Amino acid sequence: MDATTLLSGILGGLILNVMPCVFPVLFLKVSSLIEHTKETVAEQRYEAIAYLGGTFTAFAGFAAVIIALRASGQALGWGMQMQSPAFVASMVLLLFVFGLNALGVFEIRFTVQAGRSTGGRLSSFVDGLVITLVSTPCSAPFLGGAAAAALATGAAWYETLALFWSIGFGLALPVLMLAFVPALNHLLPRPGAWMNTLKALTGFTLLGAAVWLFGTLARQIEAEAAQDFLWFVLLVGLALWAKNHLEELGFEGVRQRLAQVFGTAGVAAAGALLVHFEPPPPPAVIAAECEAANGQTASSVVEGHIRWTPFTEAAKREALDRGRPVFVDFTADWCASCKVFEKSHVEVEAVRKVLDDTLILAAKADLTRDEGLWEALNGLGRSGLPTYVIFKPDGTHDLLPEGPPLTLIERLLAVGQAFPPEKFTN
After folding, report:
1. Fewer beta carbons within 10 Å, N or C terminal of the chain?
2. What is the dihedral sign for C-alpha 346, 350, 355, 358?
3. Residue range 356-374: average pLDDT?
4. How big is the CA angle at 51 (ends 49 and 53), to the nearest 5 degrees?
5. Whether the predicted pLDDT of 333 surpasses 90
6. Distance between CA atoms of 365 and 332, rounded to whole angstroms?
7. CA-to-CA distance for 94 and 88, rounded, in angstroms?
8. Cis peptide before 141 (omega within 30 of 0)
9. What is the model's pTM?
10. What is the 8-class DSSP label of residue 324?
11. Superfamily of domain 301-423 in the CATH hierarchy
């Protein structure tokens, strides 16, 4: 482990703050800082350290799981926990709850001890935990190298922990800078009514993120199980609203505690009844590639869209043995960057034309559910998504740099010229 890898982790964590799955939650934290600008500098710094402690605690938990899985010989990857329906469902519920909180449906309150509120530091610690959890589906430039080093088979436990903490430090860096460099606070806007409007918009953004992640969950479990989970999410929202509403009505003492007991018992019973994650039936087996009736290789472009072949080692080997290159897109439903890059750089007319002209096989390695594909990804020296690679019949491959596939067209053309369709064998 060297300083460059640690720096990559810090930069990757810093960039995560502007990713779509993290930024809304970060805004809520910055809004809290704006509202508490009158606190002493010392208290602001204590809260920032508590925030960093939350990110470190969450990443330490991730590191412990990674170390245990690595010891068992399992293939690893950044965001692999998103293949667990239980984890994805927890993220959906968490984003939904934060969305309701931002919209003012309920308010989280912390206790007061010895005449002093513990809410600031405890709230900051929880914010650090949450922002780390919501960052897990995201990937960012510079993050891949640090993540690969942290997940590498030969990494010592302390190296894995240090690399994860470097990412956590980068993730917490904006809040730390605002607390430890007081001059930066002048860059923050003054509190005002505009914050309520932006907070409400952030709430809807968080609800949108919950809807997006629910789409991933719906592919991982049966339709009935997904529908039942939606009912449970609704009941949790109702319980949170009821708790806040009863407090506004003046419920105190015994009545308040009884309402909390019955409410908690009701949510627990609903969870036991409605939360179940039966897997969907296995998809129909699709042929690796469909050949035309005259025996010629079929194009991966059909009716103006890329017809993706599900990636398997057997399908790749079959195509390469015939002299046909294979372009593989490693992706997942929970990877926001994957979806954005697919729309902007992959499923576009220029790429479709190259695939049609060169007859390069387009294969998609979908890691939404299939854990076995992590081994293929690790074999490329990568542990995060998206990853794009072109396998060549001569046994080599062209691995595109991390980030958007800006040079995809040029690389496909170069491989197509080196291995033209007329040299394919049937």
Report:
1. C
2. negative
3. 89
4. 70
5. no
6. 8
7. 10
8. no
9. 0.74
10. -
11. Glutaredoxin (3.40.30.10)
